[in-house]
Amino acid sequence: MLLQTRALSIRIGNKPILENINVRVDPGEIVTIIGPNGSGKSTFLRSLIGALAPSHGQITRSPGLSIGYVPQRLHIDETLPITVKRFLQLPKTSPLADIREQMANAGAPDLLNQQLMSLSGGQLQRVLLARALLEKPNLLLLDEPTQGLDHRGAAAFYRQIDGIRQQLNCAVIMVSHDLQYVMRRAERVICLNGTICCEGKPETVGSSSEFQALFGFDGDDDTLAFYSHRSHHHESGPVREAV
After folding, report:
1. Residues near 136 by beta carbon (within 8 Å), at least 6 away in sequence
2. Could you count the other beta carbons within 10 Å of the beta carbon of residue 225?
3. What is the pTM of this model?
4. pLDDT score for 161
5. Which of 45, 137, 217, 233 has the fewest CB atoms within 10 Å, counting from its CB?
6. If pLDDT is split at 50, 70 and 90, which confidence band does 217 have?
7. Which of 186, 229, 193 shows the shortest CA–CA distance to 211?
8. Has residue 109 got a pLDDT over 60?
9. Residue 170's beta-bridge partner residues?
10. What are the pLDDT digits (tens) for 159-206?
11. Hey, what's the torsion of the CAs at 25, 171, 180, 196, to 10 degrees?
12. According to the 3-state scheme, what is the secondary structure of the chain?
């Protein structure tokens, strides 16, 4: 066991965000989290890295657990001149050899000397992934890592993640809005809407009444690849504030 939550609940102010979340993550597995906007997916990941304290319940992490985290958004001052290499050395300096290795693992070996603000959405996602890999994680947390990517870019990114998982034997928790991918390729799915509505293999979740009520279609429906999300950007566009 790498990590386990028991009866995890989180309130922000007086507003309940998550209630009674029980999740266990074991080495090497991929857990995909889906749910509508505002369902607490990002809050859940932030609680796992310790950025938010539980209002109730507990989070148990295995001794020595190292977590790599790729956030949903990165806020950058557009006037800040900073190269990818310099960005990857903040807030702590890593050996250049390690940085080159993880950039290669993330599929972006030639971006080190580029300005961070000049990157496309897909390129920045790979830089953020490399930064997370510098932690040599046992557990990799990805918050909507393919938002802003087209289908080809998203498929390539998923393949990269699977290769990294096999290479490092790390577990992955990934928030995704790509239902087509989730229902065809995910190993284990958790459907979140303030609490866990349903979980299990994709075919189990896709056929559940809770899933149907939330998304209004059968999990095998090929006509819907992505469900709506306001912050989608295009791969070809320049990085501004969020990816």
Report:
1. 66, 68, 168
2. 13
3. 0.86
4. 93
5. 217
6. low
7. 193
8. yes
9. none
10. 999 999 999 999 999 999 888 888 888 899 999 999 999 999 999 999
11. 20
12. CCEEEEEEEEEECCEEEEEEEEEEECCCCEEEEECCCCCCHHHHHHHHCCCCCCCEEEEEECCCCCEEEECCCCCCCCCCCCEHHHHCCCCCCCCHHHHHHHHHHCCCCCCCCCEHHHCEHHHHHHHHHHHHHCCCCCEEEEECCCCCCCHHHHHHHHHHHHHHHHHHCCEEEEECCCHHHHHHHCCEEEEECCCEEEEECHHHHHCCHHHHHHHCCCCCCCCCCCCCCCCCCCCCCECCCCC
- Lookup result for tokens 């040599």: 136
Q: Is-contact 140 45, C-beta < 8 A?
A: no
Query: How much of the chain exceeds pLDDT 90, in percent?
Result: 66
Identify which has the larger pLDDT, 5 or 119: 5
Q: Which of 9-13, 78-82, 103-107, 158-162 has the lowest mean pLDDT?
A: 78-82
Q: Which residues, listed in sequence order, are joined to residue 139 by a DSSP beta bridge?
A: 67, 171
Which CA distances in Å does 43 have to 27, 34, 51, 70, 87?
Answer: 22, 13, 9, 13, 25
Q: Tokens 């190292």: give the residue.
A: 66
